Amino acid sequence: MNSLLVADSFLVANGTVRGLDLHRHRFTTSCKALGFEGAGDYWDDHVTRLPGFGRWFPRFELWSDGLTDDGRRLALQARPAPPQGGRVRVAVHEEPDPRTSPRVKGPDLEMLGALKAEAAATQHADEILLLDADGTVLEAAYSAVVWWEDDTLCTPPADRPLLPSVTVALLRDLATTRGIESAERSRTPADLMDREVWLLNALHGIRPIHAWNDGPIDPLPASHSTDWQHALLALSHPL
What we know:
With about 240 residues, the chain is of the alpha+beta class. The protein contains six helices and 15 strands.
């Protein structure tokens, strides 16, 4: 039975991309951890073949046939990019984190997609937040989570079971450039509901949370996400 071992996706907009080296590093490091060499050469060869026009969301993949190491293979899906997301309603997955490989993108994608679809069907949510064993926020199904405490940009602690986020890394670099302090803190959903909270990923960049569970939409009139989104977009470079 074929199974997805590693995956990595990024947005290509008219031949430009953000954090491409970071995406390459995450993908090849995960492949090497499984004893698979050659992912870097495959990446370098195929990334040059991506279209230089339009919006695309390619996904590099390492698959296994589940039988032998020789049954592993690399693949690239050159997919059109979905529309840019707007304001976000999130639901909270109250049960323990169901992921089997939280620090590797790939093995849990299908299960996370099912959780996200269920949250959309039952709570009209755009994303679902995953919690650690102590009830603190880790990340969303397909997004990292950051928030603001006064003028400090906060993330969950790095020693938690988190997928290394390229967009979080880029945002932290931007914060350093702007003289903004970053901190790692453990917070529950209840701690965050009165704060400005952003979901981050390669496709959408920054999406502020406007509603929690079945609560009302908050227009976030004082949100400064637009300014940071523009700064993030400015980090795009040609392939």
